[in-house]
Amino acid sequence: MKSTWRADLMAGAIVAVLLIPQSLAYAMLAGLPPQVGLYASLLPLLAYAALGSSPVLGLGPVAVLALMIAQALAGLPAGVSAEAGALVLAAEVGALLGLAALLRLDALSSLLSVPALRGFENGATLMIAAGQLPVLLGSAAAGFTLPDLATSAVHGGLRPVSAVWGGGAVALLLLSRRAGPRLLARLAPLLLLVGAMGLSAFTPAASGVAQVGALPSLALPLALPSLDKPLWLQLLPSAALVGLMAFVSSLAVSESLAQRRGEKLLPAAELRGLAAANLVASFTGGMPVAGSFSRSILLHEAGSRSRWSLVFVAVFMLLAMLLLARPLAYLPKPVLAATILVAVLGGFTLRHYREAWAYARAEGLLMAAVTAAVLLWSVGAALALGVVGSIALLLQRTARPHVARIGRVPGTHHYRNVERHVVECRPEVVGLRIDESLVFTNARGLVDVVLALVAEHRAKVGEPRRVLLLMGPVNHIDVSGLVALQELHAALAAEDLGLEFSEVKGPVLDRLKAVGWLERYHVPLYLSHHQGIQAGEHALRPSLADHDAPGQL
Amino acid sequence: MKSTWRADLMAGAIVAVLLIPQSLAYAMLAGLPPQVGLYASLLPLLAYAALGSSPVLGLGPVAVLALMIAQALAGLPAGVSAEAGALVLAAEVGALLGLAALLRLDALSSLLSVPALRGFENGATLMIAAGQLPVLLGSAAAGFTLPDLATSAVHGGLRPVSAVWGGGAVALLLLSRRAGPRLLARLAPLLLLVGAMGLSAFTPAASGVAQVGALPSLALPLALPSLDKPLWLQLLPSAALVGLMAFVSSLAVSESLAQRRGEKLLPAAELRGLAAANLVASFTGGMPVAGSFSRSILLHEAGSRSRWSLVFVAVFMLLAMLLLARPLAYLPKPVLAATILVAVLGGFTLRHYREAWAYARAEGLLMAAVTAAVLLWSVGAALALGVVGSIALLLQRTARPHVARIGRVPGTHHYRNVERHVVECRPEVVGLRIDESLVFTNARGLVDVVLALVAEHRAKVGEPRRVLLLMGPVNHIDVSGLVALQELHAALAAEDLGLEFSEVKGPVLDRLKAVGWLERYHVPLYLSHHQGIQAGEHALRPSLADHDAPGQL
């Protein structure tokens, strides 16, 4: 027990060393004063530790979310400060995640396909890096898209002294990563920050370089976020996207670590933990938070064993707040920008595009389009494009259900696809295998597909009198699927063909029986496809008990 | 050939008789002058006849779309007339449908599940009927939601003379439906309109009743819609919903009639036809158009054989325009409201809610929620709720892929679910059947599901060394599914378990081979599951040619 505490304390200390510079930097990236990042790294961690489920989720400010927050807050009405907007945004994110937890909507994490998520994260990485370049170089350029940045860079100027600070910081960080031992690489950002503050405070080397500036006293501001209704409505769409991204990115890292650690992760508990953390952030002067990829990996590698490690992180952050209160004013902004630049660019890779393109052109294109949308349009539009595009591609591919015409493998009771096997078909019955669940995304195509296969049977085998559907692969039929089966029944009846089922799965059969569907449409049911093919016009209708018994083959 | 022309002429005449009153009424319902409905029933029909594919699509103004148009135009900025707004809306609907046709997105029609569509149509029917009651009764009440209508009805007053005209018209229409021959029921709305115009023009009986009033001269106004950018942006979300609804509702009726008629329908051609019709409507003073359920059925029953019948409808509409130009001014509005009321209420039914509820609670609730959203919120919100709700229910149900642990049926080479059959399992290999395609909606759950089944095998059968996935039911693996398989490979490797596949379908195998996936992850491949179970650690890797040949069983 004691060793668990010691391990968590150690992991907490190591992660705090990374979180201190990141929290300051990501707050600046979100267009907020740096102390907001510290506030967001304090009590929200305790909220997640109380309600979440992963022992290694590096909760706090994250870079991608910071970019989304910056764009969401860019359109605030006059008179509303960015800090006030961030609190409202965090409250909405917390409330939406809490609502999703209540409605058990953790499956919403599936809304973002891998190509959409990777395309978005890569685009955000590039955009964050591009946005830090002017700060690094002392240019006044700013903007949320590459064209805006480029346009404003023309008249943005350049301060050599800033560029020296920024370039020097980048060089030191890269050097510590490449050359030094692992411990040095982890300590480097914090050492750099402390060193830069000292250099800037006690020497004239920083004259002309933008500094963070004097902060209000660092006391945790406990207050409710503004309850201004138009402001809430304005930020709601952004909050929905930030919430989705916070949940999906946190779940992705905590799930993959749980698998690696052989632990069980509860998505519903993650949702609750994130909701609580964001609500607490909104009451304690913070900004929306999520699980960071780099800090979660670090927690795992540093040996965190329980969520107590997050409590220790919060304690170290409190210490940092007390120690950093005064010197923070001297921190040169180019140095902060350098830590952001180096931190995010490590996550960028072109490999994903190549791989997706090689495997599936359309998904590779979607990934690239989402990245381009981040760079040229906005993070909100890019995320919406990713969700809608993924669904459109899936609908496009699944609009027609997969149905195979099957025949008997000679000498057996088995039925296989006529396209792939040498099989026997009897003229009077069309044997078809429905290869997937019948749901609204493919239901509309069912009648068309079946009628085409019936026509094929008619042309190649003979005039049929019945159509026997092997329903074994069907796991679920929703209301749209049921209506499609009704339409199929009517369309077949119009050609004087009977509709029959075989090998219907238990759960599917239960629901059909619950509404008396088979009786109403006079659909005979067979335990095995072979029975159905052999049967005459008047079929047996075995009871459910029969059907569930170990069947004949 | 001659008889085809005669049949189409006849069908055109019969449908025009229904379209004349409907076009006037639905324009009024959309908050537009009645002649807009006539304009929308003229050249757009020719555009569809040229590019569409159904010989029986009753194109023109439709009630549900009219309600959506009314709500979209309610928020127009000062200085923009409803007519100008309707033209922009039609142009946007046409452009969006055209874009969808270019990108071959006809699968987008699957976005609306049956419960969402029926819930929406029922809600729209009720809302349209409720909205016509004040017109019928001479009340000044108005509003787009039931609460708004009820609130304004308190002070809306009531004109007995209007109520007499309106109530009388409803009674006559219902009587003609119930009592008279079918022909009379079809002629009734037109006869009623002509009779009412005559009575109202030549007698004092209409004094105090709201009339349509003098119209500008009925000359087809050929002009481009306004190109005001803010106006286009404001109407774009409504246009997307109107376009989706126009496509889905048109396709639903034209597809079901095509099946009944044994004809082939091309969804892509429907998309083109609808796009062209709406673009033409935007240049010729119209409003967004779609296929009407009642008029399409009528075209079919009246014997339409080709899209020439629509051309004849347009010719008759032109005649009607010339004849109706003057007398239209005298038409009492309560009579027009009566034709709307009787036309839409025929489509309302509670049966769908009962059936959906009995079959699947969640889908029944969604249907009711969409209807309630139409009545209490807005058509746009209701349609969005229907789309998002359907996808959420599907994600919720499919978030975990269906995977069965399978064993050998004694004495055979066949493998069945251990839960449902008496089968034999070998300790050293876990046999699993993946029962559906691996796509982004279920990919995230794969590792969890498989690891749980491996743990079950370990507890009940023994310590395994390999996991053999029977991939027969998998029709498709998208990039997210592929990544999930990679994660599964890593998770199994962490437990010292090998991952192997059997019975992979040809198209799925082709793509895996294209990126060298099986080699990269060292996944052995077996022609049949039985082979895989029997095999030792060093597996054969049959070539694609072997795999595609008629296999052993």
Structure description:
Chains A, B: It holds the Pfam family Sulfate_transp. Chains A, B: Its main location: membrane. Chains A, B: Keywords: Membrane, Transmembrane, Transmembrane helix. Chains A, B: The chain crosses the membrane at residues 84-103, 158-175, 187-211, 231-253, 274-294, 306-324, 336-353, 365-395. The structure is a homodimer of 553-residue chains. The first copy, chain A, is 62% helix and 6% strand. The first copy, chain A, is mainly alpha-helical and 553 residues long. Mean pLDDT of chain A is 86; it is low at 537-553. Chain A has two domains: 2-348, no CATH class; 403-548, STAS domain (Transcription Regulator spoIIAA).
Low-confidence stretches of chain A: 537-553
Distance between the termini of chain A: 56 Å
Number of helices of chain A: 24
Relative strand content of chain A: 5-15%
Backbone structural class of chain A: mainly alpha
The most extensive interface between chains reads: A-B, 76 and 74 residues
Mean pLDDT of chain A: 86
Q: Mind telling me the C-alpha Rg of chain A?
A: 30 Å
Estimate the helix proportion of chain A, in percent.
55-70%
**What would the principal axes of the Cα set say about the shape of chain A?**
elongated
Q: Which strand order do you get reading across the main beta sheet of chain A?
A: 4-3-5-6-7-8
